[in-house]
Amino acid sequence: MPPRHRRYLLDRFDLYGGCARQIVACIAPDLIGFGDSDKLADAGPDSYQFVENRICLDGLPGQFDLGDSVTLVVRDWGSGLGFHWARRHPDRIAAITYLEANVAPRLWSQLSPIAIWAHQTGNTDH
């Protein structure tokens, strides 16, 4: 029997520990406008939102042979995109690893003033 390959779809972050030694195929996309990705030509106040990033990421797995045993490694607000993809493709998910992710609903009253400000302004340089 041929070896079972592991496929990873990652939010952009440094690989930690043994994870890097086990990867057979790794896809690490930047979110729109982040890292090395192109900026939107006609960006407006509703640009760079969840839906735009979801649409772009939805096309990514089809460009690669990810197979039916995908391990998602997601981080920060890219976690929501990964969880959303996993929810829509549960038969293809082997595992999910998440870092710095909101995994439970939060009320505004539960957040610190700096977290509210960073969320509302998109500014995380505090």
Separation, N- and C-terminal Cα atoms: 52 Å
Q: Averaging pLDDT over every residue, what do you get?
A: 75
- Assign the structural class, choosing from mainly alpha, mainly beta, alpha/beta, alpha+beta, or little secondary structure: alpha/beta
User: Helical region count?
Assistant: 4
Description:
It is a single chain. With 126 residues, the chain is of the alpha/beta class. It has one domain: Rossmann fold, CATH 3.40.50. Helix content is 26%, strand content 16%. It contains four helices and four strands; from the N terminus they run βαβαβαβα. A four-stranded parallel β-sheet has the order 2-1-3-4, with helices on one face. β3 (70-75), α3 (78-88) and β4 form a beta-alpha-beta unit.
In short:
The chain is an alpha/beta fold and 126 residues long.
Keywords:
alpha/beta, 4-stranded parallel beta sheet, 4 helices, Rossmann fold
What's the arrangement of secondary structure elements?
Blueprint: E1 7-10, H1 19-22, E2 25-27, H2 50-58, E3 70-75, H3 78-88, E4 93-99, H4 113-121
Parallel strand pairs: 1-2, 1-3, 3-4
